[in-house]
Every structure is written in C-alpha cells, then in structure tokens.
C-alpha cells in the first residue's frame, strides 16, 4: 500500500518520580537483603538439621549416587559458613539472570536485522536499551566470580586434582577450565572465555549502536545493510558463546554432572525472560503515552513470542528431564533428585513448570489476550518471576545442598538487581530518540497488520 | 428469485480501490455475497464486516480431545490392560506418555481444523467451486453480489453503485 504515514519524533524522558520509585525499590530491596542476611547469620545450623530431617529419602539416594561419582568428595571444600554461601549463591544467580536480560536485548535486535523483519522496527530502541546492561554485567560477573568461586565452583580447588584421592572426573575435565596451565592452578582458559564473551558482546552492541546513531543523522540505507551483516556475525558468535557460557557459569557448579541440553536450556530461559521484559517494557511505555508507532498488532507479535518461547522452554526442559528420567543413570539422576525431592527446591521445581508453562500457555492462548496491554502486563511478570525461580533451581541446589532457602535475602537482592537494571535501561532509553526515524522498515512496521 | 443463482460481479483492479469500494457498496445498502482476490488483502475482513473466525476454538477442542484420547489410551494399555515393566518405572508413569500425548494433540487439532474448515467453507470433495470470474486467480479482485439478497434494488442500480465505487467492470453472472 502506497501511502506514507508521518512519524513524530519521540524522546523518552526519565522523570524524577520514576527515578525516585526505582531508588525506593532498591532501598527496600537493600533493607530486606540486610534483614535476611542478619537472619541467616543468626539462624546458623538450626535450618541445617531441619533440612536433613525433611529429606531423608533423598539423602540416601544422593549419597549413593555421589559415592560412585565423587570418590574424593570431602567436606573440606565447603569452607564458608552457610549464610555466606547463601549470599554468594544469591549474588551469582541474580547476576546470571540479569546477564541474560542484557544480552537478550542485543540478541533480539540482531535477530530482527538478520531476519530482515520490519514489524519490530518501532520497538528496536527499547531492546537496544536492555543491552546497556552488558558492560555492567561483564564487570559484575568477573568480580563476583573471583569472590564466589571457592564456594560455588568446587572444581577451582587444587586439592581435588592431587594425590591418591584425586577426582577422576574433574581431572579429565580440567583442561577445559585450566588450559594451558596445569589442573588446580589458575583457570586461564575459563577466565579468558568469560572476558572474551563479554568483550565481544559489548563490541557487537557498540557496533550496532553506532549504526543507529549514524542512521538518525543521514537516511542512508547502507546503515541497515551494515547492521544486518554485523547481526549475522553476532548470531554466529552468540550461538557458540551462549552455550559455552551456560556450561561455564551454571552447569560447572554441578561439575560431575553434565547435560547436552544445558546450553539450550539456559538460552531458552534467558530468551523468554528477555522477551517478557521487552513486552512488559513496550506495553508500559505505550501506557505512559510513548511509542505511538506501536499498536495492538505489534503487541500481538510480542505476545506470540512470549507464548511460543514459553512452550519452547518447556520443550527443552522436558527433553532434558525425560532422557535422564528414562535412562536412570545415577550420576545423571542425582541432579533431578536433588531438585525434586529436597526441601525447598521441590516446590520450586513444580512452581517453575506452573509459572513458566501452564500459566503463559493458558493465559496467552487467545488472540485477544496477546493484543491487550493489561493482559501482557499481567503475564510477562509471571514469566519473569518464573524464570527467576528457574535460575534459582539451576544454581542453588548444587551449592547449598540441603541448606537452601528463599527468604528476604534472595528477594531483597533480586529487588536491588532489578532496580539497578531498570535504572540503566531507562537511562539508556534517554540517550537515543525512542524511534529510529530513518529506519528503512519503519513504514512497513506502521502498516503492520495481523 | 432463488438465492445463489443470479449475481452481479464487480471487477476491481487494485486492492486500495477495492477496500474503499467495499465500504462504499455496503454504505449504499448493498449486501455483498463474497469477494475473491488473487492474494490476501489486509483489512478486507474488517471492511466486509466479517466476525472473527471461531476456528481456533475448534482447534482447541480437537486438541483437548487428542490429549484425552492419548492419555486414556496409554494409561489403559500400559497401566491396566497389559502392564509391562520398562526401566523399572511405574506401569502408568506420566513422563514417557508425554511425547505421544503431544503428537496426538497436534494431529487431532490439525486434522480437526482442516475438516472443520472444509465443512464450514462448503468445500466438500464432490462439490466443484463456483467461478464468478476466472481473473480472480490472476490479477483482478472480484466482488460477487447476490441479486436475491438485494431484492430492493434493480440490476442497473447495483451496477451503477459498483461503478461509482470504483469497479472497472460490472457483469452479470448466472448459475443455472
């Protein structure tokens, strides 16, 4: 259709009220966090024995599985007190969760360029703003890793590679962490990967952003072609790096265990969380009077994305679960026994499926649900909270064993991270015009109709 | 006059004219039987005042039938009729049933949707579709108006309204 629709320039204004609300969120989060930390420090070992009592069956099952898989398993690695381990675990899981939100912002933009998609060009800048978390996430991950490695990643301890009781499985896996140095020294390969991934992700982010700025100044379509080629290279790099990152940062906590689905599993979780956040952000901006170029058709597409990738996540979840369930090999099933039969992971394990599959599946099934701002603003937080639980259950049981808990500490820390993430994203939104007025597919987006 | 026998057929050359034409024709109180076009025209359903299809509802019901059928079948077969020990699992354990349940859900939803669509759109195997104008499969949009449903208007009136609405031709078409 021939007619051209004029687009108003839009600029997001980060109002002081919004900023104040975010600082209140961070403040309340900090208070809860400190409260939870003090409670955790004082409760000491009371929770420990209680946890044991409630999970006698799994204790014996886990013990028998670990006895065969982990000949050198000794309690000497678990040096820090329970509250400190709990703090480290919570820091790491919240960080990994928000790493995902940041990188998925860039991933979304690149997918749209590579697919030559027109419908999303009006909301591209919102996804791009999510990517502003990448450099912060990179620094946090690197710093936190050195802080938490002793308690979270027991393969970092040199004694598991030494002497008569050396751990065979970990010794075999050692080059993956320590190459070119010898096992038990500094994990050079691992740290290089971490730096490389964040460095490359940030570089791709800057490259795409540079093109966006240039496109706003002159209406040369060359910028779009260049962005498409940058995106294609990013997607190739991300395909590999997201999987390896999942093994490195999440799966290596349970270093004796492995799953070939794990890279996809973490990616699926990140991706659907990022889509849910994007849908929530777009719906909220629309509610606040921004993004006039976005209408029910675009929301419908975002809703379909959330719906479809909730199912995709479940598909990956089930593929991983069923193979392990059916094969029934102790060193594999131990992962699920820890999570299904142990308090408090058991209720999270099932809640995870309810929040991330059953609710999005039923609530977003109809066309009307996907097109309404109000419905999207209900379902997308459910998905985001659901995947927070998902990451909790990926990371915590491997570290905390029977002492895991969800309390003020975890919730408070999540609020602090969320507040900081939102500050960065909303501040990022003010840096560029909200609509790329020279995007060659903006007109296509305005005529989008489904 | 019998319904579905005598028609006036308006030919439109492009979809922008067609969309405006549909609104003008309906605005003049003429009831449109159907519009045929060589490719999907966005906004045509709304312009024609069609209600949303209830096909998704049919798909959901057929899908649920598939889910129920698959679960009943497997639980009955492996739990009661011929219990077998497989990998030390319970006779009727849910996880191994899920792939089959998923497949049957999709299969029944898909086949049920196709069947429903065929029945609702009157596309039975023995029924040959009517061609109002063969050019609707090439480069023209074809608007069919049933004279029996527009008894208050003469053929000339309808043709005039069609021309005013932007049709390049307005022809008679009779199925006897």
UniProtKB/TrEMBL annotation, chain A:
The chain crosses the membrane at residues 22-41, 96-115, 127-148, 188-208, 229-250, 262-285, 305-327, 347-366, 378-395, 407-429. Keywords: Membrane, Transmembrane, Transmembrane helix. This is Quinol:cytochrome C oxidoreductase. The lineage of its organism: Bacteria, Pseudomonadati, Bacteroidota, Cytophagia, Cytophagales.
From TrEMBL, chain B:
It comes from Chryseotalea sanaruensis. Pfam families: ActD (PF11821). This is DUF3341 domain-containing protein. Keywords: Membrane, Transmembrane, Transmembrane helix. It comes from the Bacteria. The keyword Transmembrane applies. The chain crosses the membrane at residues 58-77, 97-120. The keyword Membrane applies.
């Amino acid at each position: 259709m021939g007619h051209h629709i004029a687009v108003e320039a839009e600029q997001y204004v980060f109002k002081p009220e919004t900023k104040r609300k975010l600082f209140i969120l961070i403040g309340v989060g900090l208070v809860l966090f400190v409260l939870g930390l003090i409670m955790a420090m004082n409760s000491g070992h009371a929770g420990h024995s209680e946890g044991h009592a409630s999970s006698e069956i799994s204790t014996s099952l886990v013990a028998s599985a670990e006895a065969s898989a982990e000949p050198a398993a000794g309690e000497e690695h678990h040096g820090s007190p329970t509250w400190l381990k709990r703090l480290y675990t919570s820091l790491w899981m919240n960080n990994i969760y928000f790493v995902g939100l940041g990188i998925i912002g860039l991933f979304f933009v690149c997918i749209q360029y590579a697919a030559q998609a027109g419908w999303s060009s009006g909301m591209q800048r919102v996804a791009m703003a999510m990517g502003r978390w990448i450099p912060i996430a990179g620094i946090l991950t690197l710093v936190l890793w050195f802080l938490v490695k002793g308690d979270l990643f027991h393969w970092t301890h040199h004694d598991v590679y030494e002497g008569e009781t050396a751990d065979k499985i970990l010794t075999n896996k050692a080059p993956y962490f320590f190459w070119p140095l010898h096992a038990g020294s500094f994990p050079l390969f691992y740290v290089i990967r971490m730096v490389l991934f964040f460095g490359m992700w940030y570089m791709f982010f800057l490259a795409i952003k540079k093109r966006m700025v240039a496109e706003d100044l002159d209406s040369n379509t060359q910028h779009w072609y260049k962005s498409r080629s940058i995106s294609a290279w990013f997607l190739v790099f991300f395909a590999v790096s997201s999987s390896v990152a999942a093994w490195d940062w999440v799966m290596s906590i349970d270093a004796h265990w492995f799953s070939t689905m794990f890279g996809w599993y973490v990616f699926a979780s990140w991706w659907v969380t990022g889509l849910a956040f994007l849908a929530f952000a777009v719906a909220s901006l629309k509610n606040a009077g921004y993004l006039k170029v976005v209408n029910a058709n675009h929301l419908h597409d975002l809703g379909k994305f959330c719906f479809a990738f909730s199912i995709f996540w479940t598909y990956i979840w089930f593929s991983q679960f069923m193979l392990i369930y059916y094969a029934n090999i102790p060193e594999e099933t131990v992962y699920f026994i820890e999570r299904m039969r142990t308090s408090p992971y058991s209720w999270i394990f099932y809640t995870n499926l309810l929040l991330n599959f059953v609710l999005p599946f039923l609530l977003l099934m109809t066309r009307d649900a996907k097109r309404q701002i109000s419905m999207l603003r209900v379902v997308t937080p459910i998905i985001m909270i659901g995947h927070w639980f998902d990451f909790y259950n990926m990371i915590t049981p491997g570290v905390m064993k029977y002492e895991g808990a969800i309390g003020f500490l975890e919730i408070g820390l999540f609020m602090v991270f969320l507040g900081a993430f939102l500050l960065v994203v909303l501040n990022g939104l003010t840096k560029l015009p909200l609509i790329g007025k020279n995007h060659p597919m903006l007109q296509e987006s305005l005529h989008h109709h489904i | 006059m019998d319904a579905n026998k005598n028609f006036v057929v308006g030919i439109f050359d492009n979809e922008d004219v067609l969309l405006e034409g549909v609104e003008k024709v309906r605005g003049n109180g003429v009831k449109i039987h159907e519009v045929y076009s060589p490719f999907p025209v966005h906004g045509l359903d709304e312009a024609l005042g069609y209600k949303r299809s209830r096909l998704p509802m049919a798909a959901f019901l057929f899908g649920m039938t598939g889910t129920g059928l698959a679960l009943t079948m497997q639980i009955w077969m492996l739990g009661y009729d011929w219990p077998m020990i497989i990998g030390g699992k319970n006779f009727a354990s849910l996880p191994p049933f899920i792939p089959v349940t998923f497949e049957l859900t999709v299969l029944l939803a898909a086949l049920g949707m196709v069947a429903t669509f065929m029945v609702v759109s009157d596309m039975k195997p023995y029924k040959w579709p009517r061609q109002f104008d063969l050019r609707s499969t090439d480069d023209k949009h074809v608007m069919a108006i049933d004279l029996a449903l527009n008894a208050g208007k003469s053929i000339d009136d309808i043709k005039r309204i069609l021309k005013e609405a932007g049709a390049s031709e307005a022809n008679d078409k009779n199925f006897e």
